[in-house]
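Subject: sequence -> structure tokens, single chain

Hey, anyone have a minute? Need the predicted structure for the following. Not urgent.
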Amino acid sequence: MLQYKAVITGLAALALLGGCNNAEQTSPQKQTSVKIDFVEYAKHAEPYPTRLIVTNKFMRFDDGEGSTSFILFNRNSNTIYSVNDDDRTVMSLKSQAIELEPPMELELEEHNLGTLEDAPSIQGMEPLHYEFSADGDVCYNVVAVKGLMPDVVDAMQAFTAILADDSKVTFNNIPADLHDACDMSMSTFAAGRHLKHGFPIQEWSVDGDGRTLVDYTEDYEPDPALFELPQDYRHFSVQEMREGKVTGGEH
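Reply:
Had a minute. Here:
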């Protein structure tokens, strides 16, 4: 879940190519309501702020106050919606269990690099630095805090699992000579493995993308309208896009 904007772009790309939810169910007794602010980094681009709002029922990614394009994850129906204000569309992606083996054996490793020098604890918990590799190549680094906002981590795991399963739908369209162990592991066959170590307060990939936690507010009271889908936009599924049932310019 490295970049909100990358997720939107990735969903559209997956649709034009034509990522099993094992996360724990949200406890009805536990009320989650948190706002999380990040700074995202992309190669050859200026850093930009993003926002994540998580409740028992929803998880929303956007660019902050006033955002009209956003990603909405309905945790009850296991459905992701990509809302694009520019072309007034809502594209949906539902959870699906897809069995697919990687085309080659992936040698996955992870290393606990310990605490960061001078890094303060968060709610009394120490951040730990992990490095993830595939077939000997370093793919990803994460600084995570075990026990911090566990229900938010559950939502992240469920979201990532849906994207990973959907990536299996189009995986065989990728030419064999373009297979990359890091890409395959992080997006499809071992997606979200870093989340087992807790909430990621900092993460970065070898290609220059990254994200850093800026702040978070628990007991946040979001406007319920933030979790509503615009009904006057054109609605379609990723599968309908792949089947050629969606054409441009129709509203």
